[in-house]
Design brief:
By secondary structure, the protein is mainly α. It is built from 9 helices and no strands. The longest helix has about 40 residues. The protein is globular.
């Protein structure tokens, strides 16, 4: 069953690559649209430079720091909001405002506060924080009250209560938050890099490719960003799966 799924996915990817290549041939202008062949060539050329790998590693590191900060803050605040009604009421408007503010506004503020080098960390943390807060809080409130009553009757320790009562309820919400937040963290972090222009970053590479009208190179950087986000998402999904087991 799993083999068939992989084969089906591979076929779909090949079809989309073929459509992309056909569109590139129809446009017949590498500045407007470079095809997958030109993009792969640009990627190979970029990969031959150590600066490229430093840029990729730096961006992943910065985004991960912001992601983990958003995870920790969102989780702590969700637990406090679940435990204390007034905390939930107090931070409710704040969470709503954060979810509504455009990412560009966060980027500008982050550049003023921390400069271009650390802006991606702050932006990644800000965009992931409400995702973890909302999902974990929903998971806590969806916990079966009867199970909580049983845990209270049997005077279950907090650690066992978390493991056997809360985690089963939280599991789908945590998985959803981890998957959604990774994509948002990379999107926000790299956008901050494009605006702030820190050296040795994926955002800087994208901006330089845009200035030079090197569409194939720009698509190569984009492909690297997508693959990095996908790889990190699968890694965290694997870790979460093992922990929740």
């Amino acid at each position: 069953m799993r083999t068939k799924k992989y084969i089906r996915t591979a076929v779909i990817v090949v079809i989309w690559l073929a459509i992309w290549q056909i569109l590139a041939l129809v446009v017949n202008n590498n500045v407007l649209l470079a095809g997958p062949v030109e993009t792969v060539k640009a990627l190979i050329s970029l990969g031959s430079s150590s600066l490229f790998w430093l840029s990729v590693g730096s961006t992943i590191g910065m985004v991960l720091i912001g992601y983990l900060a958003g995870l920790i803050l969102g989780t702590l605040l969700a637990v406090l909001s679940y435990r204390f009604k007034y905390v939930k009421e107090f931070f409710g408007p704040f969470i709503t405002v954060i979810k509504s503010i455009p990412i560009v506004s966060f980027i500008i503020i982050a550049l003023i506060w921390a400069g271009s080098k650390n802006a991606s960390i702050i932006v990644s943390a800000i965009v992931t924080f409400p995702i973890f807060y909302k999902n974990i809080l929903e998971g806590l409130f969806s916990t079966d009250p009867k199970m909580l009553d049983l845990a209270k009757v049997f005077r279950m320790k907090t650690s066992r209560k978390v493991r056997y009562v809360f985690l089963p309820s939280l599991a789908p919400h945590i998985k959803s938050a981890v998957s959604l937040a990774i994509g948002m963290a990379f999107r926000g972090g790299i956008t901050a890099e494009v605006v702030g222009q820190p050296l040795r970053s994926i955002g800087n590479g994208l901006y330089k490719a845009k200035v030079n009208l090197a569409t194939a190179e720009m698509l190569a950087w984009t492909l690297v960003a997508v693959l990095a986000a996908f790889a990190v998402e699968r890694l965290f999904a694997f870790i979460v799966k093992k922990v929740l087991k």
